[in-house]
Give the backbone structure.
Amino acid sequence: MTRKTTSYRLKLPSRTDNLETVRKFVADLARKAGFGKEDIHKIELAVDEACTNVIEHAYENAEDQDIDIVVKLGPQKLTVIVTDRGKTFSPGDIETPDMEQYIAELRVGGLGIYLMRTLMDKVQYRSLPDGKNQVKMEKYLEKRS
């Protein structure tokens, strides 16, 4: 029997005080999908980073904009789609950071995209024709013995 995909949606104002609500939303759904603690933490962190990037970069900390988060639970995977109407960017222009240099320079910030790509199994960025931006992240549920 094939399990269907179920979608859940959360739409919130672009404020950092909403990040806890976002983390709880995705963690609860990841738990429901059967992910373990470590993967749930990875999903939470990746989605937090995606939303923080929207707040700080796409919306430049403007609190009157919305972030739309859709979580899809499908057979053996969880998909998170974060959509905004802020400034676009080209993720291909962002290089993988040299972590040794990053630490040596005591830099702060700038690891959001790197973290998302490291924590999730698949990450895609799209600028839609209607002026929206989307980041789509997938995490696959590993079969447990």
In short: The first strand starts at residue 6 and ends at 13. Residues 37-58 form the longest helix (22 residues).
